[in-house]
Amino acid sequence: MPSMTVQAPAKLNLTLDVLGRRPDGYHEMKMVMQSVSLTDTLILETVPGEGISLSTNLGFLPADDRNLAAIAAKKLAEATGADFGHLNITLKKRVPVCAGMAGGSSDAAAVLRGLNELLGLELTPEALARIGEGVGSDVPYCVLGGTALAEGRGEAVTPLLSLPNCWTVLAKPGFSVSTPELFRRLDSQRLRCHPDTAGMLSALEAGDLTGVARRLFNVFEEVLPVRRRERVEELKQAMLHGGALGASMSGTGPTVFGLFDTREAARRGYELVKPLCRDTFLAQTL
Ligand code: ATP
Q: For residue 214, how far is the Cα from the chain centroid?
C-alpha cells in the first residue's frame, strides 16, 4: 500500500509586526519566519475505500475531520479532484500545541506536500500554498518553509535568502495565551515599538547572524498580561546569560527562543534554561 513519511517543522518569528486592523476585520501582519528542526512526523498511507482517518500520540488533539492535517487532505482532494481512496494519517506530535510555533499549520502543509508526492500530482509549491491558504493563514509559509517574509494575514509569502546556519533553544512556559485576547489588547493601545523589519531583511541579505539576532522583535510581548510578560522576560534573559546572540517570543507565544552561533553554545544555553522550563528544546535552523 502506498505510504510515505513527511516531517512538519516548527516555525519561529524572527520578527512579528502588526501594522493595523483592516476593513475586513483581519490584522495586517509583517513577519519574518524561520523553520527549525523541531518537527512533527506524519505517515500518510492510502488504502482502498474512502474517507480519512487519523491517529495521534496526543490524546487531547482532535483525531477527526477537525484536525488541520485532515482538513488539508480534504482541501487538496476538493481542489484537484484527486482520489486517494481511504487516507490513514498517523501524526506524531513533538511541536508543542498552542505555542506560537504553527505546529498545526505545519502538519497541514506536510500533508499537502506529502500527498502531492505520493499521488504524483506535480503541483508547484506555490499551487500547494494557495490550497493551504484555505486551511489557515500560516499554511502557505509552512508549505514553502525556510526563511521568508509573510505579509497580509500571513498568507502572502516571499522567500528570503536563508538565515546563516545556526542553533536555537526553545522554551515553552506552562501557560497558554489567547490569540484573540492578544489582538484585542493590541487594538486598544498604541504600541511603543515596532521591529526593524527592513534592517532584518538587510541583515539576512548580508548573511549577518549577529545583525539578525540583534533585530529579533515581536510586538505581542508588549501586550502580554504582566505576569506572563515577566515570565517571557525571565526566559529571554536566561537565554542571553546562556550565550544567545538574541532572544524573542515566537508568534502569540508563549514560546521563547534564543539564537546561538554554534551547537556547543546552544547546548550550554539549553543546560541553563532547562531547569527553568520543563519544555525546553534544542534545534537547528533549516
Ligand atoms: P500559531 O503559531 O499558528 O498561532 P499555535 O502554535 O499557536 O499556532 P497550533 O499548535 O498550531 O497553535 O494549533 C492550535 C489549535 O489547533 C489547537 O486548538 C488544536 O486543538 C488545533 N489543532 C488542530 N489540528 C492540529 C494539529 N495537527 N496540531 C496541533 N493543533 C491542532
A: 21
Q: Is 11 a catalytic residue?
A: yes
**CA 73 – CA 70 distance, rounded (Å):** 5
CB of 36 closer than 6 A to ligand 1? no
Nearest CA to ligand 1 atom 14: 98
Among the listed residues 243, 244, 285, 225, the one whose alpha carbon sits nearest the alpha carbon of residue 32: 285
Closest by CA to 88, choosing from 23, 44, 33, 40, is 44
The beta strands (E) that lie in the chain are given as 3-21, 27-47, 52-56, 86-92, 147-152, 156-159, 167-171, 217-218, 246-249, 256-260, 280-284
Catalytic residue among 11, 93, 172, 236: 11
* Among 97, 138, 182, residue to substitute to test ligand 1 (most atoms within 8 Å of Cβ): 97
CA dihedral 162, 165, 169, 174 (to 10 degrees): 20
- Tens digit of each residue's pLDDT (9 = 90 or more) over 192-218: 899 999 999 999 999 999 999 999 999
pTM: 0.95
How far is the C-alpha of 9 from the C-alpha of 285, rounded, in Å? 10
Residue 79 buriedness (CB in 10 A; 0-12 / 13-18 / 19+): middle
- CA distance linking residue 50 with residue 68, whole number of Å: 18
Could you report the per-residue pLDDT of 2-20, keeping only the tens digit for each?
899 999 999 999 999 999 9
